[in-house]
Amino acid sequence: MPGIVIVGAQWGDEGKGKITDLLAEDADAVVRFQGGNNAGHTIVRDGVEWKLHLIPSGILYPGKCCVIGNGVVIDPKVLIDELDSLRARRVDIGGLRISANAHLIMPYHLLLDSAGEAKLGSLQIGTTRRGIGPCYADKAARLGIRVQDLLDEKILKKKIVAAMEPKRLSLRPYEKDPSLDLRTMTEEYLTYGHRLEQHIADTAKLMWEFLGEGKKVIFEGAQGAMLDIDHGTYPFVTSSNPLAGAACVGSGVGPKNIDEIWGISKAYTTRVGAGPFPSELHDEMGEKIRSRGGEFGTTTGRPRRTGWLDLVALRYAANLNTLTSLVITKLDVLSGLDRISVCTSYRGAEGAEFEDFPYHQTVLHHTTAELTELRGWKEDLGECRTVSDLPDAAREYLQFISEHTGTPVALVGVGPGREQVIWTEAAQQSLLTRDGRPASGQPSAL
Ligand code: IMP
Fold first, then answer.
1. Residue 417, pLDDT score
2. Which of 19, 51, 239, 259 has the least C-beta neighbours within 10 A?
3. CB-ligand 1 contact for 229 (6 Å cutoff)
4. Quick check: is 179 in a domain?
5. Are 398 and 255 contained in the same domain?
6. Which regions in the chain score pLDDT beneath 50?
7. What is the CATH number of the domain that holds 334?
8. Residue 275 to residue 86: CA distance in whole angstroms
9. Are 276 and 322 within one domain?
């Protein structure tokens, strides 16, 4: 031990990549446990931007053990492209380990994802069209192709035939698509197997060894709590569990291996794709947040929907994950406003007030946000490195979030650079920061 989970506490895109990259410096391993290349992490190091989709955010530390766990769905072409581009930029990828049990996204998954969305018409989910849902569906139907299958031509071919058989009807419009030709597909995937073979491993066992030796392991979540297939805004969700509980199943360790759970939230809310978003702003303020926060998807480039911070949803996420700490990112984006609103409850269509996240989708779809106004601040926060550098109103805002969620704020992001963070006193209690961190500034109370 220790094992530390980092998860998104909103609808994804909270800045998990940057925080994982920061905290990974002291960790011995970083493990991805769910999702696939629907995720997109942007890390800025010394002014240079890195975009990762599948590879854990610790990869920029030479030789760091970075694991793609069994719970991840892998598009091998995307993974190899990502590895090639890292290699071209002289990043040492020797520490990458890929679970032999992780499932593979196949060409038919990509086609079915797009076809499924087209069929839904106005009810579409707004998926990233990366084949995530169809791949997880095959996993559950026990028709999945796994990483280990890449190493055996006969098995691979047999499994592809078995997986495609029940999809014949839905794949009929793509009959002539060369990517679906059995021989081409098998050969292509065998080539991927050869390329990836040196990285394929029994990653659960590797994690038991790390944790058994007292090494520090970070479990890096993708997406966020509100996109969880069980607890999110179903059906407008992803097809995996981006919650801390899934870190165990998706990597092969037990719950006793988890010591801390950090939830990442922006100082406001964003969402990509369709689905309910009670605190959404459709006005100039929403546009202002989008342009100042650069709220455009890393994976699809889509403009993100924006809104005030939703504390009903954030408290729900804190409970679903048993968060031990919160990280508030992009606080600097809110500078310059006279007043800042936060959503503290929902108002139902019939006038009822909801302090807790409503379990019924019909209720949720018709709620509007009840807002509480707080003082804004004018100062640019980019140079703040301690809590005491922050304007009073910004400190009050963080205190308000912490009180409403019952979770201490450990880290605050005040700009895109990795040095633009504030470590609070709560961070000092953490296993993540106890030996050696924080790197800059003195931690201080909110
Ligand atoms: P899928 O995961 O591609 O199936 O998409 C399902 C829903 O999750 C859509 O609303 C996507 O926009 C959303 N989604 C998936 N991955 C991410 C992410 O990394 N950030 C934000 N939203 C995501």
1. 87
2. 51
3. no
4. yes
5. yes
6. 436, 438-441
7. 3.90.170.10
8. 35
9. yes
Quote the pLDDT of residue 40. Answer: 87
- In eight-state DSSP terms, residue 165 is G
In terms of Cβ atoms closer than 10 Å to its own Cβ (0-12, 13-18, 19+), residue 201 is: middle
Instruction: Note down the domain range covering 145.
Output: 103-198
Q: Which of 226, 218, 234 is nearest to 270 (CA)?
A: 226
Q: What is the pLDDT of residues 46-70, one digit of tens each?
A: 788 888 899 998 999 988 999 999 9
Measured from the CB, is residue 405 less than 6 Å from ligand 1? no
pLDDT of residue 437: 52
Instruction: Please list the active-site residues.
Output: 13, 41
What is the SS3 assignment for 124?
A: coil
Sign of CA dihedral 163, 164, 170, 173: positive
Tally of CB atoms within 10 A around 359: 8
Q: Which residues of 386-423 are buried (b: 16+ CB within 10 A; e: fewer)?
A: ebebbbebbbbbbebbbebbebbbbbbbbbbebebbbb
State the distance from the centre of ligand 1 to the C-alpha of 200, rounded, in angstroms. 27
Q: Hey, is 436 helix, strand or coil? A: coil
Q: For position 427, what pLDDT does the model report?
A: 85
- What's the CA-to-centroid distance between 307 and ligand 1, angstroms? 18
- The CATH code of the domain that includes 173 is 1.10.300.10
Q: To which H or E segment does residue 344 belong?
A: strand 339-347
pLDDT of residue 228: 98
Burial class (CB in 10 A: 0-12, 13-18, 19+), 99: buried
- Please tell me the distance from the alpha carbon of residue 416 to that of residue 301, in angstroms, as a whole number: 18
